[in-house]
Design a protein that fits this description.
The chain is built from 14 helices and 17 strands. The chain has 428 residues and is α/β, with parallel strands linked by helices. The strands form two sheets. Strands 3, 4, 5, 6, 11, 12, 13, 14 and 15 form a nine-stranded mixed β-sheet that branches. A hairpin with a 3-residue loop joins strand 16 and strand 17.
């Protein structure tokens, strides 16, 4: 039986690790069975193994096959809804706890890279770019908010002249530099974390899709050819979980985002576009994001396809955005184009909790997953080791079904996106 290949992305083509892990073809026992070998699953596995637990990870395709191996590769702090929005739901005191956690995911990534010697093209520095005065006002408020929650010494407001020294485009009126942000080769980060999991005795099985989970004091996780008997199960499938657990499927929606990678640019051209080699994302509701790869390609992504359909021509969707930003690249060749799915919730906040006795989950990063998923793995490990405070903070957040149920969640979401896109366009 052939193995499931990665998406035809730049990341897959430049992956450090081409090793294929075996399928699960027997019945085994472990302390924790994790469903999904993306960032949430791998982070959970590493933290659990470091605490002394036995761990098995089941992946339906390949390590990092989903969003963890296809995303924009940007280390962005906080959550898809910022701390002030969370405060309106949980109150000022509880919001302090979320504020403490909002900048932890990026620290975990850097700690993993250093501890396990992961080669993933880590670069420091990320910029939020404003296209109008309203967005600049939002960034000034964001800087103040983050500093109130202890994120000190990392943030710098950029005026029109200053952002022009960061990114060579006329689009922006200013921005906010987060020096603790940054960017990585996302698939190589996942593969490096997988090797770290295996170095600690964890087992990873690829092409081992889970078809059924039996709940109870000792849950059993079934694949087509084997099963795992565990004390605990961690569900980390996110946008690629499908309908395995209906409770999780009902309150979330997979969405697609598209990325292209140019041919390698010569050093002078690359340096002229992004002189400090920071990653950039704009402040629009449907935002554009871009950066340079380790071999000086421009990676440019943006847009959302609600319901996660694959567009017929990704390049035609993204190139106009790229050329609006960098018209000097009108003759550049595009070597790769791919799509990846993220899981959106109605509140835009992650969904965390427990099903039955011993099944735990985290999902729904809503496009803000690179840092949050690494935090989520730590929270899950804390929970399974008896420290529930931080896990329970996320688990207490309310979550709602999309209006109209599954049949109408795509058109309603698209209508909302159209409304906010118009607001972005007119700066209102």
């Amino acid at each position: 039986m052939p193995t499931t290949p990665h998406a035809s992305s730049y990341y897959a083509a430049s992956a450090n690790d081409k090793v294929e892990r075996p399928r699960l073809e027997s019945s085994i026992e472990t302390d924790v069975c994790i469903i999904g070998a993306g960032y949430t699953g791998l982070s959970s596995a590493l933290h659990l193994l470091e605490s002394g637990m036995k761990v098995v990870v089941l992946e339906a395709a390949r390590i990092g096959w989903g969003a963890s191996g296809r995303n924009g590769g940007q280390i962005v702090n906080s959550f898809s809804r910022d701390i002030d929005s969370i405060e309106k739901v949980v109150g000022k005191e509880q919001a302090k706890l979320f504020g403490q956690m909002a900048f932890e995911g990026g620290k975990i990534i850097r700690e993993r890279i250093k501890k396990y010697n992961i080669d993933c093209d880590l670069k420091d520095g990320g910029v939020f770019a404003a296209l109008n005065a309203k967005q600049m006002g939002h960034l000034e408020g964001q800087k103040k908010l983050w500093e109130q929650h202890g994120h000190l010494g990392h943030l710098e407001m950029l005026d029109k002249d200053a952002i022009g020294k960061v990114v060579n485009t006329e689009l922006y009126v200013g921005g906010l530099l987060d020096k603790s942000g940054g960017h990585i080769h996302p698939l190589n980060l996942a593969l490096g974390e997988a090797r770290a999991v295996e170095s600690l005795g964890g087992l990873i099985f690829e092409d081992s899709a889970v078809i059924k989970v039996d709940d109870g004091q000792n849950p059993v996780v079934h694949t087509a050819l084997g099963q795992v008997n565990a004390k605990f199960v961690v569900v980390a499938g996110n946008a690629y979980l499908g309908k395995l657990l209906p409770e999780l499927h009902a309150k979330s929606m997979p969405c697609g985002t598209q990325v292209i990678a140019t041919e390698p640019l010569d050093d002078a051209l690359a340096a002229s576009l992004l002189p400090q080699d920071y990653c950039i994302e704009d402040c629009n509701y449907l935002l554009d994001y871009y950066r340079l790869s380790g071999d000086k390609r421009l990676l440019f992504g943006g847009g959302v396809v609600y319901g996660a359909r694959d567009p017929a021509d990704i390049k035609s969707l993204i190139m106009p955005k790229l050329l609006k930003t960098f018209p000097q690249l009108k003759d550049v060749k595009v070597d790769y184009a791919w799509t990846g799915n993220f899981l959106m919730t109605l509140s835009r906040l992650p969904q965390v909790g427990r099903i039955g006795d011993n099944i735990y989950y985290s999902q729904g990063c809503s496009g803000h997953g690179v840092t949050y998923t690494h935090l989520a793995g730590k929270l899950i490990a804390e929970m399974l080791n008896g420290q529930a405070t931080r896990f329970d903070a996320f688990a207490s957040l309310p979550h709602y079904p999309f209006p109209g149920g599954h049949a109408l969640r795509v058109p309603f979401s698209a209508l909302g996106a159209w409304y906010y896109t118009l607001r972005d366009r007119f700066g209102i």
